[in-house]
Amino acid sequence: MHPVVASEAKQSSRVFMKFLLVVILGLRALELSAAVPPESPYDWSTVQTLAIQDRGRLKPLDTFAGESVQYLTGKRSWAGQKSLFTIFSWLVQFDKDWQQEPFLLVDSPELRKAIGVDEKRRHFSPEELTTNEPLKAILRDALPKQRKSEPLTDLEKQAMQLQARRGFLEAIVTGRAWTILPNGTSLETAWFSLGDLTDRTASSNYPAERMKALADVTGAMLDGFLSKDPAKWQSTSQAFVQFIKTDLGASAYPSESALKREVHFNHLRPFRWSWVIYLLAFCLLVAGLVSKKTSKNKLLIRGGMAALGLGMLMHTYGFALRCLIAGRPPVTNMYESVIWVSWGCLVFGVLIWAVYKNALIPAAASVFAIVSLVLADNVPAVLDPSIQPLEPVLRSNFWLTIHVLTITLSYAAFALSLCLGNVVLGTYLLSPKNIERVQVNTLYMYRAMQIGVVLLAAGTILGGVWADYSWGRFWGWDPKEVWALIALLLYLAVLHGRFSGWLAGFGFTVGAVMSFLGVLMAWYGVNFVLGAGLHSYGFGSGGTIYVVVFVVAQLIFIGLAYRKYQELDENTKKKTRLIVK
Amino acid sequence: MTFPPFRQFELFKFFSSLKLAVITILTLAAVLSVATVLESLYGMRAAHVMVYGTYWFYGVLALLGTNVFCAAISRYPWKRHQTGFVVTHLGILVILFGSWLTQKFGVDGNLPVIESAQESRVILNALHLSIFDESNNTQQAFPVPETALREQGDLLKIDFGSKKLVVKEFLPRVRAIKRLQPSPLPEVGVPGIEMELASSRFGEIDQIILANKPDAWSEVSLGPAKIAFRKLWTQEEERAFVKGASGTMPETGKAKGPGEIVVSYHGQQFQVPVGKAMSKWTRVASTSLEVMVERYLPYAVVENNQLVSKSEQPVNPAIQLKLRNPIGTEEKHTVFANFPEFDTLHGRNGKKAADRLGAKLRFIASTNAPEMAFVGSRQGILAIAQSADGKRLLFRSMGASGDLKTSGELAVDKVTPIGWMDTSVRIRRWFPAAIETTEPVYVEKVAGTSGNFLSALRMELEGSEIDFAGENWILEGDTRAIVSDGKRYRVRFDREQLALPFTLHLNKFTVEMDPGTEKAAGYASDVEVRTPAGTAAATAHISMNEPLKHGGYTFYQASYQLRDGEPPISVFSVNLDPGRWVKYLGSILLCLGIGLMFYMNPHYWNKLLGGKKE
């Protein structure tokens, strides 16, 4: 070894010892302190824009904290504390405050039963799980299977998911997940983590004086965190962030505006605002539609449309922010497509409204948007909101954008036709004698369907173009493309069924509503139920229960409407036939 | 006069009816949805074999085509408002025609190329069994019927004169399980162990390791640790291993064997490491000679008229070896390192000079004590070595920072803690001369599993007692030798291949990862197209979405394989599609037609229905 290098390594190992000492002393000091430091006075505005290299992307620590707390606890925040506070607390005072705290999510009732714990609880402490023998036994069987890529049982899968959570928690606690130290060369290559500081090899990556400075600011910040003194935390954490950004990250660091933009996006939560405003719009529109007084209902509907417009602005703003953050159109996973499709559904609703001037159309569209956005906002386990890097095959932005946007827009049009179809069914149910209204509402549904058919046919073909361009074949019977075709065929069968005279008004409506199941399968089922094929980049699991509930409710609704329809005389039934003017 | 003249035929009416259209569309939708379920259960090939590639499925598509065609011409002469209808239906027909062209004349396959190597054979989908007759260098191929599920019975019979090869079973998807077996012929085996690493944290990991590098460590990374295995040749090496500098790992390639054999042949000198030729026929560099060391005697003395080694100290190193040429002349030599002038050939007196191989041999013993240099590593290392006498297994385990955890001896079936937390090792099987065989395990359902599966065949050789020496299963890509009526044949089971009129040379393959992860962000290949004469015809950079077009073929970057210590393999998807532009044309017509249809007078449908007015 070169003598200079040797002495440097020695020095950096001394610095490393000091660093360890700081941490350990910090922990000791904590053993004496009585309670968890109060969170509220701490200022996080500097720390939240610290960049972290996580899952293939550079993101603000704020995003990482939110995602980590969500992943480990299944909640957006734990015990009402800021998620940044929670992850810092995991890092520095895990053994004291968290080892016995039941916060780790075990969401599978099946797994809870199998490992013999209280089935009513959903959260368990790390200690409980570490000492759980049945869990160990399940994992002992599952681990070799996974290594040999043999199929796991559902229980084993759930145990492995829990194991992955525990592994991630360990990475946070040991500092290995805190990849916040720039490597001084580029943003694309691997950064160092706080955990790497305790590793001789990694710590020698920085020159000795830098290593010493890093150890000093880190130690000071951890002291600051434990001090319960907001002013001290403020100064020490600022010094730490400053050192990382301007010293370690001098040559390569993500731009401050990009980091701030993402934090702004996290805190604003535009999609939650959107559905809240849509809900208001929906109430106003419905009130306007049912109220008898003309003057009053005009005002209500105007108010409703204004609210809808405001909601769409927020929706669009959120979507644009997400595009900027991800650097691509956000339609590559289930969450993003739900956001986009609900937006598209409203756009088509407003377009058809512009032609027919019936507030029923945007009201129906807003139902779909509200349901989708509420789900996207509240079921992160199924609809994962985190932004992730693209699979290599998706990095041809042009065709990806064109093909996926067209296909998903057709889903939006079909979703609108589903809502309007249910309005038709509702009309049969509530005012079966009002044939005119049935006819008019069926026409709206038909218009949405037409838009959908054009877009789905074009989108499927554009998918062929993209497949030809990326994979070398126009059509490969991949399940995703096959199901898009099936959905198209179902709608075509309904259209041809109408022309052949097989489907009169009611049958046509039911056919159109049921054909949406094809869309649901192409959109959700292929990725979450079939789980096969080249489009495997969007795969996930869970959520089947929501889909089943929807399908059952839809069938019941059709059944109820059918009973009313049966009561109509033959002449009236004939009149329900769609007339396209 | 009406056109078409057969407009009144009942059959034509049937084929042009809207009701048939509804039925055909719904049938197609139902068939397709079943196919996607089959695919998720049994994999892509199975869906192809059961649905997409079958004649009855083509039949459904043909029915659809007929229906569309008849429906379109039954409305002739077309009115202006029917433009959309006609264009749409024409579009469907054109797409179907384009698909037929692709199906009939297209090529769709894979071309794996190793970095710094070239390849011209495209792997297609159809499975076949090819028989190569070594006596006259001829080859015959027999298609193997592919099924979606396990198939048993006499699936294929091939005559070999008096014998008959019968394919008894076909497995469309197998997982290849490696097994360690004692070698049937000691000279082909190398030391092998089947071990199990167990810990409460990661469960049990099984691993087979063969010491197939005579002078170096065979290494396997098992998650948290690296396992290294080798054979020690001398007591010296053994001592060096056991002693080892603390906290270190014997560096690969540095440890020396007993020395080198120097073969002087036709005026040239060639060197062969003794370790490499130990108990194994080894070619002497570029000559046709092969050498095999039978014994190594560090301290050779003659006792009771026999040459034995008095100790393991290299006082008078000697080796006994055999030398042979391809026509069967074999010689036995004893070579002493310290006495190079001794004539080494055995049984010299009875031989004529002309019958000798004419090679002169020297043995250069390693002068230094075997060096076991150690290097640090960030991974923990468990080094296992077979002792020089082949009777013991020694081990040393080292932590991630290079500190010695523990060392000692391993015994078969004994659980030995190795000092990393609660990790222990157990040797399940150990053979000083072992081979690794592959056994197929049928994977019925692919749901919940990952990876691609190969297919496998079980063959029997009727009229032969030897059969395949127990190895009746042949996996896709494997070759077996058979002897029948004194002739040698090679049987190979693989996918059909297509030889391109040029070759693709992979100059360089690169993968980029997402920052800080092992996830590929993109990968690319720098290739050179070469003519059969070997001259470069074109160079290209093929990456995701940037294919190479050459000679009518298109090469796409499909996937890749990174291999430990070996150059990566880049896999291209190769495509020749004469139907491409026809399908594009059909697509444009279809979209245009739908647009026109919804734009133009929607009443035409009602008129189509034979004048039914609303």
Describe the fold and architecture.
- The complex is a heterodimer of chains A (581) and B (614).
- By secondary structure, chain A is mainly alpha-helical.
- Chain A folds into three domains: 9-38 and 269-327; 47-206, no CATH class; 331-359 and 373-576, no CATH class.
- Chain A contains 21 helices and four strands.
- In chain A, a hairpin with a 2-residue loop joins strand 1 (51-54) and strand 2 (57-60).
- In chain A, helix 17 (435-470) packs antiparallel against helix 18.
- Chain A starts with a helix and ends in a 6-residue tail after the last helix.
- Chain B has 614 residues and is α+β, with helices and mostly antiparallel strands.
- Helices cover 20% and strands 45% of the residues of chain B.
- In chain B, the strands form eight sheets. In chain B, strands 4, 5, 6, 7, 24, 25, 26 and 27 form an eight-stranded antiparallel sheet that branches. In chain B, strands 2, 3, 28, 29, 30 and 31 form a six-stranded antiparallel sheet that branches.
- In chain B, strand 29 (487-513) and strand 30 (520-530) form a beta hairpin.
- The longest helix of chain B is centred in the N-terminal third of the chain and has 25 residues, at 18-42.
- Chain B is elongated, with a radius of gyration of 34 Å.
- The relative contact order of chain B is 0.17.
- Residues 245-255, 368-377 and 604-614 of chain B have low confidence and may be disordered.
- At the A-B interface, helix 6, helix 17, helix 18 and helix 19 of A face helix 2, helix 3, strand 7, strand 30 and strand 33 of B.
